[in-house]
Amino acid sequence: MVTTDTQALPLVPRNPLSLRQLLAATREFHTGGEVLSAAGGPVTRIQFGPAWLMPPIVLVTSPEGIGDLLARNHVFGERCIVHDEVRHLAGDSLWVLPNERWVPRKRALQPVFTQHNVRRFGGHMSRAARALVDDWRAAGLQTGLDVDLDLACRRVTMQSLGRSILGLDLNERGDEIARSMHVASSYAADRALRPARTPRWLPTPRRRRARAAVATMLAVADEMLQACRADPTRDAPLVHALAAATDPETGERLSDRDICNDLLIFMLAGHDTTATALTHALWQLGRHPDVQDRLAAEVAELGDRELTPDDVPRLRYTRQVLDESLRLCPPAAGVGRLAVRDLAIGGYRVRAGSIVAVGIQAVHRDPALWRDPLAFDPDRFAADASATRSRWQFVPFAGGPRSCIGEHFALLETTLALATIVAATRIEARSDDFPVEVPYTTVAKGPIPVHVRPRTPPTPCS
Ligand code: HEM
């Protein structure tokens, strides 16, 4: 219950940067938040023109303000323009439904994604990661190999998500699905972030391509759904779970179209994000051999065998490495909401109609909150250090009711992949920076060159 008298609060102060600086900062979606909050404070208003022409953007980068938006006022923070674009392109799904219609869908899907349940469909990453190491072995790992980490991690992620989400070995179809996902998501994000848009009814070539890409992905999802309906023993637990999911209050099932839309959105929401998390973590390990050795020692304690989801609770340091990587390079650099009424955020009044953006990367790197914020130090996430930190200071999966439903799954998958790869190889980064591009989520701007060698010394021949 929010009791603050919103109207008594001061209006969010306007950011003092010049128009040119504001434009530059908002275009740099991931790093812009740090520039804007350094100049305008943790709750700052960016206004490019009169409100009737363009809604004000309010950027929030303080833990208190983020909690206000995502948890305490979540009902009044609606889906915004990016969600609308995806919805028009790919139909209703958990990610894009407006709050009221989202509630029953979330109720039906939540049990599928609990920490306990994701273990049923979350083990594929170990296998995909082992297959990657086998490929490296076949290509000459023994004598050292130069590889592009970006490409390797994208393939591993696609392979693993295809298996766990769709219940399908994507193999050669993986590249086609990856291409389709890229066409669809960059079309939607481009439109959402552009001030002047062509009307939706205009059949532009880009729009036609995006629609065709969505149709390709939906066809794969439908094929799997029908295959699972025909064969209840088929190994596709997530598809079966969605087909069986019911709203716990009304008992209603999801329609086939809804299930396919959700499968598609899980692939879209899960692929680039997980690939970025894995690539960035491995690249950081490639620059910090001491951290890498400590992680390898933790995995070695479990014995030389394929890791399973049940091992994850014992991979505590691996998880710390992952958290630190998600802090420095959060795959979602920010999320946005539309204020549907005046809101109290971080001690200020945000006017109804504003777009309210959470600067995830900015709060993760705020020097007032993190000591030496740009240093890679997984010990920040040791249990005692984390215990005193605000819940809203580290938000790679956002937070509140509309946080990432795939969080447990993504953490499980990425932890297993990191552990599996580092147990078998030594990684040396060949570059000191990690270039990214931000079509909507942050992705590596490959190649990310690394040198890999076997971790254990070769057994001497007798
Ligand atoms: C490291 C990996 C991931 C990160 C960092 C991440 C991050 C996020 C964030 C920040 C949001 C909030 C978006 C918003 O409010 O607009 C979100 C939502 C969502 N994510 Fe993830 N995600 C990851 C992996 C996944 C995976 C693997 C799946 C699918 C299995 C997934 C499915 C979703 C869905 C469906 C939503 C919308 C939830 C809702 O509105 O109820 N994500 N994710």
Automatic annotation (TrEMBL):
<dbReference type="Pfam" id="PF00067">
    <property type="entry name" value="p450"/>
</dbReference>
<keyword id="KW-0503">Monooxygenase</keyword>
<dbReference type="GO" id="GO:0020037">
    <property type="term" value="F:heme binding"/>
</dbReference>
<dbReference type="GO" id="GO:0016705">
    <property type="term" value="F:oxidoreductase activity, acting on paired donors, with incorporation or reduction of molecular oxygen"/>
</dbReference>
<keyword id="KW-0560">Oxidoreductase</keyword>
<dbReference type="InterPro" id="IPR001128">
    <property type="entry name" value="Cyt_P450"/>
</dbReference>
<keyword id="KW-0349">Heme</keyword>
<dbReference type="GO" id="GO:0005506">
    <property type="term" value="F:iron ion binding"/>
</dbReference>
<dbReference type="GO" id="GO:0004497">
    <property type="term" value="F:monooxygenase activity"/>
</dbReference>
<keyword id="KW-0479">Metal-binding</keyword>
<dbReference type="InterPro" id="IPR050196">
    <property type="entry name" value="Cytochrome_P450_Monoox"/>
</dbReference>
<keyword id="KW-0408">Iron</keyword>
<comment type="similarity">
    <text>Belongs to the cytochrome P450 family.</text>
</comment>
<protein>
    <submittedName>
        <fullName>Cytochrome P450</fullName>
    </submittedName>
</protein>
<dbReference type="InterPro" id="IPR002401">
    <property type="entry name" value="Cyt_P450_E_grp-I"/>
</dbReference>
<dbReference type="InterPro" id="IPR036396">
    <property type="entry name" value="Cyt_P450_sf"/>
</dbReference>
<feature type="binding site" description="axial binding residue">
    <location>
        <position position="404"/>
    </location>
    <ligand>
        <name>heme</name>
    </ligand>
</feature>
